[in-house]
Amino acid sequence: MSVAPRAGNGKVTVPDIVNRKSRRLSDPSSPSEKITCLTAYDYPSARLLDDAGVDIVLVGDSVAMVVLGYDSTLPLTVDEMLHHVKAVRRGTRRALVVADMPYGSYHASIEDSIRTALRFIKEGGAEAVKVEGGERRLELIARLVEAEIPVMAHIGLTPQSVNALGGFKVQGRTQTAVEQLLRDAHAVESAGAFAIVLESMPRELAARITEQVHIPTIGIGAGPDCDGQVLVLHDAIGMTQGHTPKFTRQYVNVGESIGRAVAEFCDDVRQGRFPSDDESYHLPADLRAQFLARSRT
Ligand code: KIV
Known about the structure:
By secondary structure, the protein is of the alpha/beta class. It is 43% helix and 13% strand.
């Protein structure tokens, strides 16, 4: 495992992320620098994101759906996740690397959850972990923080609760749900989370949470008033098949480019246009003449 470079050389750290919000709170007239976060699951995409200057690389458990082909995030195992976290760590120098804790890895006991989170830090090289859930994660978050593991919380639509929620639905649309989400945000803040992902909720509610808490909010389908934004990389670059939610923005269609390149490759091979002589290795000239003369006899 390669180790995260030390702070002071442009490296984004947990305190840097927290300070973005603190600076804004202490001087509301200061220009706000929004936090940028994208998911990555492998070495090449982590390198691309890091070189392009994203603040946080999230090894999201969305890997289960967008890369591994599962129809929810629930089947993903800790070992599968660790494999991706290590690859992302190797490709990331500057951005903060956050590892999502898979479903089931923090639901049985606090001790087991801490042991698993420690694996993401020690073996995976992550600098923080993310857990889904609000009020009900209060004790867990506090214990992880006590073990020196920075925690990013995640409330609103929490995909690991897909069965309990009855589907991937926008949250916080009733008075009761609004009040619960406000309580969730305050609970994870008081437990010591350094940031909160707000997923799929009305813009007005996300704005209120952002106004009320002192830690940064990072929205996905939560409107523009959050302190930062996160997207699933594969949605943003056109590598997701099937339905994508209305909050995603596709910046480029890499999927279409790959499809065209593959069709062209197949055509070139079938028509004998690939590889060309220039794309082939040759024997040294002296050997070549002898070799060709011999093989003709
Ligand atoms: O798994 C993931 O990619 C996430 C983001 C959508 C926040 O949790």
